[in-house]
From TrEMBL:
Lineage: Bacteria, Pseudomonadati, Pseudomonadota, Alphaproteobacteria, Rhodobacterales
Gene Ontology annotations of biological process type: fatty acid elongation
Highest taxon of the lineage: Bacteria
Protein name as annotated: 3-oxoacyl-ACP reductase
Alphabetized GO MF terms: oxidoreductase activity, acting on the CH-OH group of donors, NAD or NADP as acceptor
Length: 246
């Protein structure tokens, strides 16, 4: 049987690394994409069924070269997980245009570029796109003008992709993680934010990378063959409470 191939961006650590590991447990091959070459080199050593691609998803030339390299190595792509992301928690008046662009370039432009570059390959396999947004894209907050806006745009981009690509058999879904103790989150979650999350999340805890990976790989699998255009919060119930983001 032909092994399926997943392309995971931001795969060197955090949720992307856990997603890579779970795909491999499920028998897939994985193209691990990350701009942090050092971390990627270490991460890929754990796996026999993965290859590293050191590229920046916010740069059109990088994305073209990345797709060319992945297709030359694997010959197909069955799923793309647009997971690479950066965070910056600041209010509007303290966000420079450079801060804004830095967040948009990876979180939004990167999803657009990688999805567009992968679409011809996904048409051939009737593959799946999973875009990683955030609960920060579902609610306003006092701190996340760039991050929250970028993630809200990713949610809409997913709906556009589902509407447009369904006729080619391509499914597109979006996962909105709640808080997970990764390098990205720990750089922006103050002790007050951590305490507030513990109080307001119905399950009273942060999620794990593995819990996110389970949802992501499900959406890429045949088990989700009639699921497209959906926005799924994996957040311990936070989104269901209606309280403000800490
Ligand atoms: P992380 O920082 O642990 O991992 C992100 C990876 O993406 C890193 O390896 C980084 O080098 C890579 N990356 C960043 N910009 C890139 C670029 N332009 N090109 C290629 N690679 C790039 O973060 P994480 O927490 O695992 O985040 C994964 C995704 O989940 C992100 O989209 C993030 O916004 C989202 N998310 C995370 C949380 C959380 O609490 N951790 C919550 C909501 C959403």
């Amino acid at each position: 049987m032909t092994q399926k191939v997943a392309l995971v961006t931001g795969a060197a650590r955090g949720i992307g690394l856990a997603t890579t590991a779970l795909f491999i447990e499920q028998g897939w091959l994985v193209a691990m994409v990350d701009r942090d070459g050092d971390e990627l080199k270490v991460a890929v050593k754990q796996f026999n069924q993965a290859r590293p691609y050191e590229f920046d998803v916010s740069r059109p030339d990088d994305v073209d070269q990345m797709m060319e390299a992945v297709l030359a190595d694997f010959g197909r792509v069955d799923a793309v997980v647009n997971n690479a992301g950066v965070a910056d928690f600041r209010p509007l008046e303290q966000t420079s245009f450079a801060d804004w662009r830095r967040i948009m370039e990876t979180n939004l432009d990167g999803v657009f570029l990688v999805s567009q570059a992968a679409t011809p390959a996904l048409r051939k396999t009737k593959g799946a796109l999973v875009n990683i947004a955030s609960i920060s894209g579902l609610r306003g907050s006092t701190l996340r003008v760039a991050y929250g806006t970028s993630k809200a745009a990713v949610i809409h981009l997913t709906k556009q992709q589902a509407a447009e690509l369904g006729e080619h058999g391509i499914r597109a879904n979006c996962v909105c993680p709640g808080p997970v103790r990764t390098k990205l989150a720990m750089a922006v979650h103050s002790p007050e934010i951590i305490a507030a999350y513990h109080d307001t999340i119905p399950l009273n805890r942060y999620g794990s990378e593995r819990e996110l990976a389970e949802v992501i790989t499900f959406l890429c699998s045949e088990k989700a063959s009639y699921v497209t255009g959906q926005v799924i919060a994996a957040d311990g119930g936070f989104e269901s409470t209606g309280v403000g983001l800490p």
